[in-house]
Hints:
The structure holds two protein chains of two kinds.
Chain A: E1 3-12, E2 21-31, E3 36-40, H1 47-55, E4 62-66, E5 72-75, H2 87-94, H3 102-108, H4 124-137, E6 142-146, H5 154-171, E7 174-179, H6 182-188, E8 191-196, E9 201-207, H7 209-214
Parallel strand pairs in A: 3-7, 3-8, 5-6, 6-7
Antiparallel strand pairs in A: 1-2, 1-4, 8-9
Helix pairs in contact in A: 2-3, 2-4, 3-4, 4-5
Chain B: H1 3-32, H2 40-52, H3 56-87, H4 89-104, H5 107-118, H6 122-146, H7 150-158, H8 162-201, H9 206-215, H10 219-248
Helix pairs in contact in B: 2-10, 3-4, 3-6, 3-8, 4-6, 5-6, 5-8, 6-8, 7-8, 8-9, 8-10, 9-10
Amino acid sequence: MTMRVSIKRKGNQAQGGAPARVLFENLSFELADGEVCAIVGPSGVGKSSLLQIVAGLDRDFEGVITDLPQPVGYLFQSPRLLPWRTARQNLELVLPEQPGTAGEWLAQVGLAGAEDVYPQRLSLGMARRVALARALAVQPKLLLLDEPFSSLDEETSRDMQNLVATHVKKLRPTTLFVTHHWHEAAALAQRVITLDGSPARIVDDQPIRQAKAAE
Amino acid sequence: MRAADVAGREMWQGIASVLLFLCLWQVGSGWAESRLFPGPLTVFQSLMQEALHGPLIDHLGITLIRVSISFIIAMAIGSVLGIALGRLPWLDRWLSPWLVILLNVPALVVIILTYVWLGLVEMALLVAVAVNKVPNVAVTLREGARALERDYAEVAQIYRFGPWRTLREVIIPQLAPYLLAAARNGLALIWKIVLVVELLGRSDGVGFQLQSYFQLFDVPRVMAYAAAFVLCVLVIEVVLFAPLERWAGRWRR
């Protein structure tokens, strides 16, 4: 089934000195089952807001999202692990029916041995891997990734990209990921949507052939 | 230095300061030579006599039960009210002036009025303590509810925690420091209020006994009762609050 995102209008209220503005107007696109799509664009254009709307976390907009695949796995920009729960417990919380598999998921993201560590004692790279494991562990049909590789050193970023690529290939969720970097988009996505302007609109939407060719 | 060493040293400093105080007290009372200023040894003798052969344990037990029931009622109502005020701005706008008023009405006035309106009954005691304490708990928990992180609520929403698991795993852990602060302050305040309420209108409890010994000018026994409930508070702190605080903060770096 094809997911369809159609936003007629999304306004942002004035906040913290920033004036009220229209974020999106007549923005729509479709995503086929299992498609991996990157959203690129300048800072502040509304990429993360778009993910929030798709995820159903922001319902204050005019428009519809139809045939949203469920369940959703969401890797937020900050890891958002519950700090009072260990890495394993953070995973067990999203796996109430099969808590025993939490350890396996942590091993899959290279964190065997860190199961009982609290998030505040993990590095950003490690915490993000736990958050990735959490997003994947729910066997998502829709995977949303918000700048999953930002603020990481080059090696950690590369490891993380490989992890995402491996698991996306294995689980085949419909994937929407936000990034600043074209090379990340090219490495992972089959299609890239470029947002620009205010209100933001799709200025480019095209498949990435070289990504396919590289496979 | 290991954390245990630091904790041990801090504990010794605390104990040393108490011992020093007791020594100074003993010396001071010896110097004053007045039956109105007994030394710690005299107070301790009175305490043992009241505990072993007198009614101290019974009265202390009654007061403890009153404190416990009042504490549970005040914490329950205050927490629910505080969380509601923190999450619902319209309710906060309606009730906020009342919190300020109730916080500033003297406890004594509330106690007298509840006795006048409800009679010298146990229920009046509980109502008087609750009216005095609920606003404190509510104000603390209101701050906690305002500080709840939206980020974690969104995680709960995405991963479908449901209301019960969201409360247990997301909301209560964030409110834990506020609950603990309210509980600590609450217990200290409730002790004091319960004693006044007992003094004014009950025929048992530590407050009643203090009044009786005050009328007899029996200062050693007044101090013995005070010492008994200070000991109770210390035990509650060491056995309940300190471990609870360590447990609630175990994840912090």
